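haha ok so turns out i had the wrong file open the whole time. this is the CORRECT one, sorry everyone. sequence first:
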Amino acid sequence: MPSLAGIEMARAFAPAHITGFFEIHPHDDSRRMGSTGCGIVLDRGVETTIVVNDSINQTTVKLNGSIVQEGAIHTVVEMLTDVPLMVESTADVPIGCGFGASGAGALGAAHALNRALSLDLTAEQLTETAHVAEVKNGSGLGDVIAQSHGGIVIRTHPGAPPFGKIERIPVNDYKVLCIVLGEISTKSVLEDTRVVCQINSAGRDALKALLKAPTIENFMIRSREFAIETGLVSERALDIIETVESAGGMASQAMLGDTVFAIVTMESENEVREAMKNIGGVLEYHVSSFGPKLI
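then structure:
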């Protein structure tokens, strides 16, 4: 554990995650509540630093330099310790736009806290803590378990481990190109019973179809169908998806956010990037093969 003049510090990184489609599974136990579906873990995400100091008398959480008064990171801290500390998270992905930034912050905070306070918790216990914090705050249902593994993750059973279970689609080093159009409130969508019914029906069908042929191409097809069938896709996002496809790429909308993500191969990369650049600013990522790590 790094220390300097009585100050104890730990830093952890957790990757972002884009969900293509999902089905919500309610449960009275927050460990068992979650979602099934499929998504992509990215090579960038959220870096969280924990500072423990005798002079700190009240826990403070900052996100990108601004103090936040509530959220999943606060809940993680409350679940793991009553020691006052400083938490500083820096997101390298857009917030509230379908990149799972809240889950990445919660998961990174759990790992950094475990190191800074020598809690000696297992990776599964830390994943459970972050997942429960997300569920309690209504900020996510399936990001954390995917982010704890990396890759293209199929969530076959909902919840935190050992209840939640995953499979992974083997992939090459695909690039993920994104255009962010705006934010969507995860909590407001999850509280709309009509939308939830549409999500669950479409998400159940998408997962069944993907498991019959678990490929990156089928994942993108099912994600596109899910976005349209649920009515969550915006008109502008659909226009961009069609533009990407006409340029030889595969695209859909990130759930839940007004963001278009495209998967490109080496052969289609240049044409798809140029087509997207003509529309707006393009963010570039790679599919990540790893989960959280201490740094």
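The CA atoms of residues 73 and 151 lie 24 Å apart.
again sry for the mixup
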